Amino acid sequence: xxxxxxxKLAKLRRELLTPTTKGGGGAGEGFDVTKxxxxxxxxxxxxxxxxxxxxxxxxxxxxxxxxxxxxTLTCIPxxxxxxxxxxxxxxLPGIIExxxxxxxxxxxxxxxxxxxxxxxxxxxxxxxxTHKRLIxxxxxxxxxxxxxxxxxxxxxxxxxxxxxxxxxxxxxxLDLDTVKAICxxxxxxxxxxxxxxxxxxxDLIDVIEGSRIYMPCIYVVNKIDQITVEELDILxxxxxxxxxSAHLEWNLDGLLEMVWEYLDLCRLxxxxxxxxxxxxxxxxxxxxxxxxxxxCNQIHKDMAKQFKYAxxxxxxxxxxxxxVGKTRTLFRSLRKYKLHTVVPSDSVLQxx
Length: 352
Prior knowledge:
The protein has 352 residues and is an alpha/beta fold. The protein folds into 3 domains: 27-149 and 213-262, Rossmann fold; 153-209; 264-351, Ubiquitin-like (UB roll). 26% of the residues lie in helices and 24% in strands. It has 9 helices and 16 strands. The strands form 4 sheets. A 6-stranded mixed β-sheet has the order 2-3-1-4-10-11, sandwiched between helices. Helix 1 packs parallel to helix 5 (176-185), helix 1 (2-17) runs parallel beside helix 6 and helix 5 packs parallel to helix 6. The protein is globular, with a radius of gyration of 23 Å.
């Protein structure tokens, strides 16, 4: 019964957030900010936690700062130049409890957050940590899953045969009756459901809904100059946390390095024939686009059409240089949501 209620609530929430008109101003529309650069990072948090100050310090872009709440009323973009990459940083208006249900400009804020590659949840070190849980709840309600990977399950609709439920592990949350109840709420009467981990009802609902976004998140605890050293030591040991003081510019370098790791970007360098590699202007690729063909498209859309082969130097190949084709993967990402490690991106390419 509880699983069926959760499925019904998920459906109602989706219908509430779906735009009802063809024109502007729909429920699920974000701020009109053109996406630019190699990646987009969003600053999310309650009003007056220091998001605007952080944007000003990191990008040099002016975003009004004041001691009262709701200073930022629209989305302010800036650009961070880091390790040769252009990272667009968005200062989003402060959200309030109930944002996912339309309070304030919550829907616009969270809709824009869904377009980001990484979210920075900015918290005030001197205010209750319950702010973190409230913000997570608002983002979860809008289909954003923080520091999680998609559920390891297969859901396939079919024309007949009823609901078939199988699992390779012991399940403590789901059984055939629960799966049937959830599917029934979505008017699905024929499907194969296969689990490879101990899934919950929420996991199955997420897979059926199919509109969830799984996004890396860093909890940026600002104003650490106002807490004790003992409290700072505790914060520094928590996973996905980065303590800073935006006003005093404490640990901003550490934050940028952490953002780079969570973005999972890679620097690659060009080498024209007969010349030395160009280390001043790297080509930036992401873990989702990391082949030689992606490298060519990043430089010019016609390069891949004229491509014959590429010579690659670096840790991504055994021989130096090594001749490769368009489908060759240029770097291996080992990033996990609990441990971030990326194979060094030192490859040099020459396109022939």
